[in-house]
Amino acid sequence: MPAIVIAAAVASAFFLGYRFYSSYLARKVYVLDASFVTPAHTMEDGVDYVPTNKHVLFGHHFTSIAGAAPIVGPAIGVFWGWGPALAWVVLGTIFAAGVHDFGALVVSVRHRAQNIGSLASTVINRRARTLFLVLIFFLLTLVNAVFAVVIGNLFVANPAAVLPILLEIPLAIFIGQYIYRTKSSALLPSIVGVLALYATIPLGQQFPIELTGIADALGVDQVRNIWVVLLFVYTFFAARIPVWVLLQPRDYINSHQLFIALGVIFAGIAVGMSTLVAPAVNDVPDGSPSFFPFLFITIACGAISGFHSLVSSGTTSKQLDKETDARYVGYMGAVGEGSLAVGAILACTAGVAASRADWDALYVDFPTASGGAVGNFVNGVAAFANNIGIPFDFAVIFAAIVVISFAATTMDTGVRLQRYVIQEIGVITGIKPLARNLTLATTIAVVVPLAMALLPGGGEAGYTFGVLWQLFGTTNQLTAGLALAVIAVWVTKSGRNPIAVLVPLVFLLMMTTWALILNLRNFVAQEQWVLAPLDLIIFVIALWLIVEAALALRTAFAARRDGTAGVSTEGADQDPAAVRDANPDSGQRRT
Amino acid sequence: MSLEHHVLLVRPWDQQMSGSGCCGRLGGIGNELGNEEDFAPQRRDMESMGVVYRALRAALSTDVKMSVVDPRNTVWLVPWLLRKGWARGLRGRALLREVGRGTSTTAVVVDGRTVAWGQLPSSAEVVDLVLAELYGPHCRTG
């Protein structure tokens, strides 16, 4: 089947989802009120709270939520065939991610633009906030481990990408210094930066950097592990330098790369008329993980991502001009992320191989599929790029650079965030060295995920990576579950039918706990005594979340039965003049 | 062409914006994860532009639309600057120059024309520049 047909069908499904399902959510579940005065108006200060046009806000929101994870998950997920992967991405986007991102934004707006951690405390209880922080701790640990492996694999497979990625660091620093010192245009230097980055590709091809010799000399079986160690050494230092030196300027380069990559993928599909060679449903070998439940934790971002609730509730809600804009900004943001995941699926099923036999070799079993997934995406994008006239060898390195740039930024961020979380834990537990000693906190933030990334047990194909990725998926899905629980409780207390929120919530919790139980059994059987306790801890967190959600919902339903619910009164005391000033064209506020 | 005037304030938010939003994101004050000191330079730009924003809000009538946009939001900002510049009759290098100015880390743009960028003058001067651009040079606060 031509990939363009799939792309068109998905675009139609997303359009229908937005047109009808988000409309249903807006009218019946979240009951958006055009005359509700948003925090952007009630607390307008021109600094944090600024009423913003919905198109401006969508650009900001979408750029903020996109990353590398909607690429990696689908690239592994097509192991079960393109049918299940595509179905989960499309249905997940329409019925889970859209509900989640849109809902988190609305609940935050209805609670003075509080962020999701505070909302968990306000809407559920104080324990829920602790649960949120614990989830984030494990999520960050696993993120850092999996992305180190992703980059390590790509460096081994594409040694020509190493030099451009190394040169991206001084390039970003130079751009950052130039922009912030001269306060001049950010656009031109960042475009020049992106072009300069791609111009280094021939240099990288001329001087590929391989560490096989070093690995041999050190007696290390997997060359990837040398890269993993070097990456964590890099992040140890990168996490300690000011954000504006490297991380912030790389934002400019990454924001261009996101749209360039999306443009190349969909232009290549349209021009080349590539066809899907992968099976709709793959007959996986015996002993492989079954797509129920593992597909639903392998593809997290792209179908639903808990981290989006942090963006929705942290910044976007402070800028929402009208409450009705939440539908466009929140739901369409999820659709944008879903589109990136669809691009990844098509790259790994239509771009990466010329025939079914070639594809079967790449996805022969789960260890091979998960270990080579990102490489398959890179080669698939390169094939699409080749359709529009970009030389294949150049395009491979281009695609690798895009993924590595995103993954490296995620690692920089993850290690830095983990350091803050560890310092916070030090404060809470009264362990002063942990709270005050930056080096100690950074060392812990680096060593724990490093140990996970280096875990033995997978062989060269990277079995460990697939397992680690699934554990990361569970934490991300549980974060989404927590946000959905907050939304469901709020909807219930507001006296509306929460079924649209409860269905994805229950589905996610079921798939996650089911996968955790199956994995735990496997880890114990295989005597994996690092992964088994980790899995068990995440399982306990999942149970904790289920209990908290059930208790909160029971209370909400009881309050509704007793007639004591009604949290939709937030803003009921709004000054009518403020309402008119903020929304002159919206009429009188509904009471 | 819309007759509504649009004043755009360009300045960064104190947060990370791209590359890792799905699974890790740093923010400054009021964000769930991060450290306000990480984004101190951006915060300074936010605060100083906030003064300009409030001064403009006080000086302009409500029919003038005001927006704040991050220069990294290129997917919206660049097409808007191109569209508005084109509507003003700008072409070629003049248009590109205007787009370049409008995407500075701090800039004030009125209906597609950048009236201040880089190191901004005082808020009172910015208000004068905006009023002059909107209603002609005779219309200044001083």
Layout of secondary structure:
The complex is a heterodimer of chains A (591) and B (142).
Chain A: H1 3-29, H2 39-42, H3 54-65, H4 69-77, H5 82-109, H6 116-124, H7 126-157, H8 162-182, H9 187-199, H10 201-206, H11 212-218, H12 223-238, H13 247-272, H14 291-298, H15 308-319, H16 325-351, H17 356-362, H18 366-387, H19 392-429, H20 432-436, H21 438-453, H22 463-493, H23 499-525, H24 531-562, H25 576-582
Chain B: E1 6-10, H1 40-59, E2 65-69, H2 74-87, H3 92-102, E3 107-110, E4 113-117, H4 123-135
Parallel strand pairs in B: 1-2
Antiparallel strand pairs in B: 1-3, 3-4
Question: How would you describe the overall organization of this protein?
Answer:
The complex is a heterodimer of chains A (about 600) and B (about 140). Chain A contains 25 helices and no strands. Chain A is mainly alpha-helical. In chain A, α1 (about 5-30) runs antiparallel to α16. The N and C termini of chain A lie far apart (about 55 Å). Residues about 460 and about 585-590 of chain A have low confidence and may be disordered. By secondary structure, chain B is α+β, with helices and mostly antiparallel strands. Chain B contains 4 helices and 4 strands, in the order βαβααββα. Chain B has helices at about 40-60, 75-85, 90-100, 125-135; strands spanning about 5-10, 65-70, 105-110, 115. In chain B, β3 and β4 (about 115) form a beta hairpin. The longest helix of chain B is centred in the middle third of the chain and has 20 residues, at about 40-60. The mean pLDDT of chain B is about 90. Chains A and B meet through α3, α6, α7, α8 and α13 of A and α1, β2, α2 and α3 of B.
